[in-house]
Automatic annotation (TrEMBL):
The lineage of its organism: unclassified sequences, metagenomes, ecological metagenomes. InterPro entries: BT_3044-like_C, DUF4973. This is DUF4973 domain-containing protein. Pfam families: BT_3044-like_C (PF14274), DUF4973 (PF16343). Signal peptide: none annotated. Residues 25-155 form the DUF4973 domain. Residues 168-313 form the BT-3044-like C-terminal domain. It comes from bioreactor metagenome.
């Protein structure tokens, strides 16, 4: 009998505890803060965003603004978004020190527009979107451009921004893309000096947008971290002859500096293959074949190093054909 009473008492105690726990979770466990959702890479507070390049049109990007907490947003909120150049300055100094040539640059106002910097989140909703319209014609991607934003706080506003770094601000590294830009594998692209038959091989080379049909890369194995990298900028323009093949025109941004000489006619080919395991996934590969020579009179004082480059470089994109927006359809 005592055991039965003890068992019933234990069950009753558990039910009371569970009931108390359930009631507890009906109330907000934290503070409802306003936040910007901009996931950054590992070890970084900078968020790279991919924006389709259009020279004569704008491209819209939508930045999520959310209310944190364990319960639904309790009231109508009007979240004010402002520029945050101070955080960008701090980031540059902490990460690049005296290498000001590697600093992220504040994106110029002519390259974007925010129609309404006040985002309305109605009661019962947890998020809304900030529209940012980019128009990136003539942007020079030798430099890296960041749009730094944060949530503005004021006693008169009906919200409080999140107190933690990276929750109430967003450093958006704007990266335009076209059909040919991205990271190419270059293990089949050989670079020789005039004094050696041993090729210099790099695993990959990053290319950047110039316009809808043009990209640029740095000649040979020129590092993207070089202070004088802009002088080695080679512009490649893709001239379509069929849907999948064409020629490539190579042009030096500073022809008097690197003395670029193109040998033969560079060409490209595009191959599209649907994945056998994932039938909605398209694998699109761009292969560029080229040969050229150039000079480097800047790296070693009073000495000119002459290089020859020959071979192919390839870039593969995996594209989810079910997603219309290219920015999200491509598996970056």
């Amino acid at each position: 009998m005592k055991n039965i009473i003890y068992l019933l008492g234990s069950i009753l105690a558990i039910l009371i505890i569970c009931s108390a726990c359930n009631d507890e979770w009906k109330e907000e466990q934290y503070i409802q803060y306003a936040c910007l959702k901009a996931p950054a890479g590992s070890g970084s507070t900078v968020t790279q965003i991919r924006v389709k390049y259009r020279s004569e049109e704008t491209t819209r990007y939508q930045l999520p603004v959310i209310m944190s907490g364990t319960t639904l947003n309790s009231k109508d909120r009007d979240i004010h978004i402002v520029l945050d150049p101070d955080t960008l300055d701090i980031y540059n100094r902490e990460h690049f020190y005296s290498r000001t040539d590697l600093y992220y640059h504040l994106l110029e106002g002519s390259f974007y527009d925010i129609p309404n910097p006040v985002v309305h989140i109605p009661a019962g909703k947890q998020s809304a979107l900030l529209d940012i319209n980019f128009k990136l014609k003539d942007i020079d991607l030798v430099e890296q451009w960041v749009l730094p934003l944060k949530i503005d706080d004021d006693p008169s506003y009906n919200y409080q921004s999140h107190p933690r770094k990276d929750y109430n601000n967003a450093l958006l590294w704007v990266t335009p893309f076209n059909d040919y830009s991205g990271t190419y594998g270059t293990t089949n692209l050989s670079v020789y000096t005039e004094t050696s038959n041993q090729p210099i091989i790099e695993n990959q080379r990053t290319t950047h947008v110039v316009d809808e049909n043009s990209i640029f890369f740095y000649a040979g194995v020129t590092k993207e971290e070089r202070r004088d990298r802009k002088y080695f900028k080679v512009i490649a323009t893709f001239n379509a002859e069929t849907d999948s093949t064409g020629t490539v025109s190579l042009e030096a941004a500073y022809p008097d500096v690197i003395k670029l000489q193109v040998i033969g006619q560079p060409t490209y080919q595009v191959v599209k293959v649907m994945d056998t395991a994932k039938p909605t996934l398209q694998r699109r590969t761009v292969t560029v074949s080229m040969e050229y020579t150039f000079e480097d009179a800047l790296e070693v004082p009073d000495h000119i190093t002459r290089y020859s480059v020959k071979g192919t470089m390839s870039m593969q994109r995996n594209i989810n054909t079910l997603i219309e927006d290219e920015e999200f359809a491509i598996e970056w």
